[in-house]
């Protein structure tokens, strides 16, 4: 049986950021979300999940639609079989 997990579609998030002229992604995410740059880097590497307040801050800053939020923050990822 496979377990469904969600991850951040970092490429899509970065493309939305680039459309607004942002290019230093880790620093900008850290600034918007009020987190350390190292923590932002972990989130952009999908090693840590974004929290609801962080997602809301990014939604407000980048004016993301509900479809974009789902596509960016709730992208499905299928893990290996779990016994």
SSE order: EHHHHHE
Strand residue percentage? 15-25%
Q: Mean of residue pLDDT? A: 90
Distance between the termini: 7 Å
Please report the total strand number as a whole number: 2
Quaternary structure state of the chains depicted: single chain
**Principal-axes shape call:** globular
The portion of residues assigned to helices is 55-70%
The low-pLDDT segments are: none
Biggest sheet: strands, sense, closure? 2 strands, antiparallel
Give the spatial strand order of the biggest sheet. 1-2
Q: Radius of gyration from the CA trace?
A: 13 Å
Structural class: alpha+beta
**Tally of DSSP helical segments:** 5
Question: Quick summary of this structure?
Answer:
This protein is α+β, with helices and mostly antiparallel strands and 83 residues long.
What does this structure look like?
Helix 2 packs across helix 3 (37-44). The chain has a two-stranded antiparallel sheet. The chain is globular and about 40 Å long. The longest helix is centred in the last third of the chain and has 11 residues, at 52-62. It is an alpha+beta fold. It has helices at 10-19, 25-33, 37-44, 52-62, 66-73, and strands at residues 2-7, 75-81.
Characteristic terms for this protein:
83 residues, alpha+beta, two-stranded antiparallel ribbon, 5 helices, 2 strands, 55% helix
Topology of helices and strands:
Elements: E1 2-7, H1 10-19, H2 25-33, H3 37-44, H4 52-62, H5 66-73, E2 75-81
Helix pairs in contact: 2-3
């Amino acid at each position: 049986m496979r377990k469904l997990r969600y991850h951040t579609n970092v490429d899509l998030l970065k493309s939305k950021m680039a459309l607004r002229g942002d290019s230093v992604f880790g620093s900008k995410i850290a600034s918007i979300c009020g987190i350390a740059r190292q923590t932002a880097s972990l989130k952009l590497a999908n090693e840590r999940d974004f929290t609801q307040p962080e997602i809301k801050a990014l939604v407000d800053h980048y004016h993301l639609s509900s479809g974009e939020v789902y596509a960016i923050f709730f992208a499905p990822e299928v893990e290996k079989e779990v016994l």
